[in-house]
């Protein structure tokens, strides 16, 4: 989580000067492993983000009186109390190194598109969003392709026609073959836009996964977002999940 998102999520702008310092100290602890801080550093964090211009002496006195801090190893330094860290870890698990929860802002797939579907679908959707939000566009493209493949297979299974996308050994064929079948399969009955989108997403994901010099860019994904959302929604219905 970037600092700007943490500021919005934590509501730092609306808390006291002392608590601003404590929240910033927690962020730097989790992002930079900065276990100790001074009132001067905290004041700089606050002013650098245009959230006030604290008086350092007053802030130091307030931090010293707080039950959420303990003395640091050097004079004038503070550490966050274990209970305060534990509470914020629960509130912001995405900042904890031990957490595997993915927090996203719904850039590609809004929460309404994937909430209460399946755990693995929700996880993939969140990872797609985070990759896009954090500029990991190749990763985003590959995961978009993966979710498409998962939902296509689940749709075939729901309709009882998955034998059409299996080889002689009973294994599912490569996505290219699945997409080709899906574009003409009347039982599946994809909409016209979805027929086009499944190939565009497959191709983009393949480039990101296999082309050595290829680099996916924001605009390559951005132009497909609306169509991809519609595709995911349609496949969730066909798979019997929505």
Task: Describe, in short, the structure shown.
The chain is 60% helix and 4% strand. It has helices at residues 3-10, 17-32, 39-48, 56-65, 82-91, 111-114, 119-133, 137-159, 175-184, 192-210, 218-222, 225-238, and strands spanning 37-38, 69-71, 77-80.
Secondary structure layout:
Layout: H1 3-10, H2 17-32, E1 37-38, H3 39-48, H4 56-65, E2 69-71, E3 77-80, H5 82-91, H6 111-114, H7 119-133, H8 137-159, H9 175-184, H10 192-210, H11 218-222, H12 225-238
Antiparallel strand pairs: 1-3, 2-3
Helix pairs in contact: 2-3, 3-4, 7-8, 8-10, 8-12, 9-10, 10-12
First-to-last CA distance: 30 Å
Q: Provide the CATH topology of the largest domain.
A: Four Helix Bundle (Hemerythrin (Met), subunit A)
The counted number of beta strands is 3
The CATH class name of the largest domain reads: Mainly Alpha
Proportion of residues in β-strands? under 5%
- Give average pLDDT, whole number: 93
Uncertain stretches of 5 or more adjacent residues: none
In the CATH hierarchy, the architecture of the largest domain is: Up-down Bundle
Structural class: mainly alpha
Q: What's the story with the biggest beta sheet?
A: 3 strands, antiparallel
Rg from Cα: 24 Å
- The strand line-up of the biggest sheet is 1-3-2
Number of helices: 12
Based on CA inertia axes, which overall geometry fits?
Answer: elongated
Number of domains: 2
SSE series: HHEHHEEHHHHHHHH
Q: Tell me the helix content.
A: 55-70%
